Amino acid sequence: MDRSVNPLPPLPAVRVFEAAARLGSFSRAAEELAMTQAAVSYQIKLLEDRAGRPLFKRLPRGVAPTAAGKVLQRQASEALDLLRQGWADLRGSGGEELVISTLTSFAAFILAPRLGQFQVAHPGITTRVDVNPRVVDLLAGEATVAIRAGRGSWPGLAADLLIRSSYTPLLTPALMETHGPIREPADLLRVPRVDAGDPAWAMWFRAAGVEPPKQADQHSLGTQMLEVQAALAGQGACLLTPAYARGLIASGALVQPFDLVTEDDISVWLVYPEARRDAPAIAAFRSWLLAEVADLEV
Q1: 146 contacts 132 by C-beta, under 8 angstroms
Q2: Which residues of 99-121 are buried (b: 16+ CB within 10 A; e: fewer)?
Q3: Helix (H, G, I), strand (E, B), or coil: what is residue 34?
């Protein structure tokens, strides 16, 4: 094969370009690479001259890749990841970092009890969990992968379904005894409910054939993790995704009085840049996590 037909771009310039695109700043790229800002600008100009088109839009604060720049950014990020991992493997030192941006409840119920197993299986990959409600920019390198709630469609990103959004009431045995007997779904109307104003309660009652009570204006805890803590403290019944409830039910801490589970169209997904699907850390984490959640439904 004649490699001169498709020559490589100047690799030092690609390295500079990837850093500037990821950080959105020539000056920050210069700091990361221990270069002067003038040297960064020179390498970017060199790459743009070779490409025959601009790769960055100059903004009042920082820079952003053009459409052509975004294409190169995805490919450059994947190529550099593979190169870093190949070099680490050659040196026998691993050293790859996997930054996981995740939802609070998923981090607490799924990742925290299990992530150590992934680390043991992949000692060359360092994991860092970032519990952050903000939707991070994966294409810009703000995290390696993300756990997101949504419908599974994000431009430029691949998404694997992890857990369908579904809900069922849970309460402590003590609360069940105090307000019991709980034999029919309508019996839950006399039990205090955590986040009683959540529309998911009305959805569940209607699915059970029970006219839901009028929604009262109450405070919202915002995450299932906090709702569970309130339920465990005996403040009321909570609605919880069955996949999150498995351990609590098995331990007897909470009781699921009815098998009825309601679903909505917002589910939990593993998300990562499509162009980096085969990056070693992403591929390893994806394979492990999909296997872990495969049998979580109660």
Answers
A1: no
A2: bbbbbebbbbbbbeeebeebeee
A3: coil
| 215 has pLDDT over 70 | no
The whole-angstrom separation of Cα 60 and Cα 260 is: 54
- On the CB side of 35, CA atoms within 13 Å amount to 22
Tokens representing 63?
């820079």
Our CA angle for 163, 169, 172, nearest 5°, is 115
Give the pLDDT band of residue 298 (cuts 50, 70, 90).
Answer: very low
List the beta bridge partners of residue 56: 65
pLDDT digits (tens, 9 = 90+) for 237-270: 999 998 888 889 989 999 999 999 998 888 999 9
Per-residue pLDDT of 47-69, as tens digits, reads 999 999 999 998 888 899 999 99
Residue ranges per structural domain of the chain: 3-88, 95-164+266-293, 166-263
pTM of the model: 0.69
**Cβ atoms within 10 Å, residue 25:** 20
Class of domain 3-88: mainly alpha
Task: Give the dihedral sign, CA 170/215/108/271.
Answer: positive
pLDDT > 70 fraction of the chain, expressed in percent and rounded? 91
Of the candidates 120, 112, 128, 81, the one whose C-alpha atom is nearest the C-alpha of residue 275 is 81
Q: In the CATH hierarchy, which fold is given to the domain comprising 166-263?
A: D-Maltodextrin-Binding Protein; domain 2 (3.40.190)
Q: What is the pLDDT of residue 132?
A: 79
Would 3-88 and 166-263 be classified into the same CATH topology?
Answer: no
